[in-house]
Amino acid sequence: MRIGINLLYLIPGIVGGMEMYAAGLLAGFAKLNSGDEFIVFVNREAENWPLPDASNFTRVICPLRAVSRARRYCYEQMCLPRLLKAHGVDLVHSLAFVGPLFTPYPAVLTVPDIAFRICGDQMPLVRRLMLRFFTQQSALRANSIIAISNFARSQIAVEFGIPLAQITVTHLAAPASSDDDTSLTGVMQRYGIKQPYIIAFSSFSSYKNIPRLLQAFVRARCDYELAHQLVVLGHRVSGEREDSYIQDVISTGYVDGASKYALLKGADLLVFPSTYEGFGLPVLEAQQVGVPVVCSRAASLPEVAGEAAIYFNPLSIDAMAKAIGQVVLNPDLRKILIHNGFQNAAKFSWEQTARLTLEVYRKAVKC
Question: Residue 59 and which of 142, 209, 248, 317 are 20 to 30 A apart at CA?
Answer without folding.
Answer: 142
